[in-house]
Design brief:
The chain is an alpha/beta fold. The chain has three domains: 2-84, SRP54, nucleotide-binding domain (Four Helix Bundle (Hemerythrin (Met), subunit A), Up-down Bundle), CATH 1.20.120.140; 100-293, P-loop containing nucleotide triphosphate hydrolases (Rossmann fold), CATH 3.40.50; 304-425, Signal recognition particle, SRP54 subunit, M-domain (434 Repressor (Amino-terminal Domain), Orthogonal Bundle), CATH 1.10.260. The protein contains 21 helices and eight strands. It has an eight-stranded mixed beta sheet with strand order 3-2-4-1-5-6-7-8, with helices on both faces. Helix 10 (226-238) links the parallel strand 5 (214-220) and strand 6. The two termini are 22 Å apart.
Length: 448
């Protein structure tokens, strides 16, 4: 989505720079918007209808004669984007009589098994008792993969022996879940081509056997417009209740997010935004629209922090920083908390106004690993009092972790910057008016 976001922001910057807008200005901007949407792999009809709706609203006296016509157009585009993607969050359907059964379907390689594990982790974090079901008996090691994911998330996996038919596996899993008090049953099925009638019929048979509350179609966002065709075919055969878009964080044009709901009528319920087991987010059309238009997504950022970071530990760190008691041991804990957050650049892009600033910034998250290895090579006394680290100690620390002395110096300088920054924020020193390049958040160690 990054390229689309940049294109739209550039178009809106031109509109905002004009005091007044003419109908020709709006028409020209909409022509650029349509091209940007098509290049992002948005379905042609969706792009055409989207721009037509904006034009109907934008070429009116309330916009062209307003004091801020450019901002009014952005507001209209934002509202139309939200409507295009569903209008509001589509939550998981819940069975009135537990367990809620979720059937995961999709093409080969779309990420169903990984998404099943992520969904199990998401539900467990909400206090639920999910059960993973290994019904992919065709792909080598698929069952083992799901078992491993279950172990990592602490979620049990129902995996019968070889030779059991997927329909029978689903039936047995449902009975097992009822007996063991599982309130969600997530059935991971084999990937298939939508033209494979035999395997598509197998899904229909599983559906008939267990009557799932949800049928979630997992779609690789990198498929572009083909993702819409996949969704249409699966929906026609299975009456899909929701979609999960995976790899939305990758090098993709992301047009599926703007097309699939409009074309199929099936809501997007989750998006996969990374490789970690916590990298599955509920889909909020208003938040996605805000990200696309470069307005940030503060609510998602707050949720990510609350779900992945130890709030008590971070509060204790903040207190130590204020009282100038922050040590390299605490610095190590801080980096561990930051790594839980996932992709740093994606996280920072949620801050309003940061998206464009991050365009050419390289965040080397491997540097966090380097910093951790250096601190682990220090003695407890050195971590608690870095002032004692002289030249000979630096050589020993560098040798102990296989790094260079300049790497040790860089880490110590970053740590010193954090301490100085906190003293300034606490009013112990005047804040300098000079803007030096300290990295993001004024020197806090986000490696660049």
């Amino acid at each position: 989505m990054a390229n689309l976001s940049e294109r739209l922001q550039d178009i809106f910057s031109k509109l905002k720079s004009k005091g007044k807008l003419s109908e020709a200005d709006v028409t020209a901007a909409l022509r650029e918007i349509r091209v940007a949407l098509l290049e992002a792999d948005v379905n042609y009809k969706v792009a055409k209808d989207f721009c037509a709706k904006i034009k109907d609203r934008a070429i009116g006296s309330e916009v062209l004669q307003s004091l801020t016509p450019g901002q009014q157009v952005v507001k209209i585009v934002n509202e139309q984007l939200i409507e295009l993607m569903g209008g509001g969050q589509a939550k998981l359907n819940v069975s009135p009589k537990p367990p809620t059964t979720i059937l995961m379907v999709g093409l080969q390689g779309s990420g169903k098994t990984t998404t099943s594990g992520k969904l199990a982790a998401y539900l467990k974090n909400q206090g639920k008792r999910p059960l993973l079901v290994a019904a992919d008996v065709y792909r080598p090691a698929a069952i083992d993969q799901l078992v491993v994911l279950g172990e990592k998330t602490g979620v049990p996996t129902f995996a019968p022996g070889a030779g059991v038919h997927p329909v029978e596996i689903a039936k047995q899993a449902l009975a097992h879940g009822k007996t063991h008090g599982n309130d969600y049953i997530i059935i991971d099925t084999a990937g298939r081509l939508q033209i494979n009638d035999e395997l598509m019929q197998e899904l229909a048979d599983i559906r008939q056997a267990v009557e799932p509350t949800e049928i979630l179609l997992v779609i690789d966002a990198m498929l572009g417009q083909e993702a819409v065709n996949v969704a249409k075919t699966f929906h026609e055969r299975l009456a899909v209740t929701g979609t999960v878009l995976t790899k939305l964080d990758g090098d993709t044009r992301g047009g599926a997010a703007l097309s699939v709901k409009e074309v199929t009528g099936v809501p997007i319920k989750f998006t996969g935004v990374g490789e970690g087991l916590t990298a599955l987010e509920p889909f909020y059309p208003e938040r996605m629209a805000s990200r696309i238009l470069g307005m940030g997504d503060v609510l998602s950022l707050i949720e990510k922090v609350e779900n992945n970071m130890d709030v008590e530990k971070m509060a204790d760190m903040e207190k130590k920083l204020r009282e100038s008691r922050f040590t390299l041991e605490d610095f190590l804990d801080q980096m561990a908390e930051l790594r839980k957050m996932g992709d740093m650049k994606e996280m920072l892009s949620m801050i309003p106004g940061m998206g464009k600033q991050l365009k050419n910034v390289q965040l080397d998250e491997k540097q966090l690993v380097v910093s951790e290895s250096i601190i682990h090579s220090m003695t407890p006394a050195e971590r608690n009092n870095p002032a004692i680290i002289n030249a000979s100690r630096k050589k020993r620390i560098a040798a102990g972790c296989g790094r260079q002395v300049q790497d040790v110096n860089r880490l110590l300088n970053q740590f010193d910057q954090v301490q100085k920054l906190m003293k300034r924020l606490n009013g112990q020193q005047p804040v300098s008016k000079k803007k030096g390049k300290k990295g993001l958040f004024g020197g806090i160690p986000f490696p660049m």
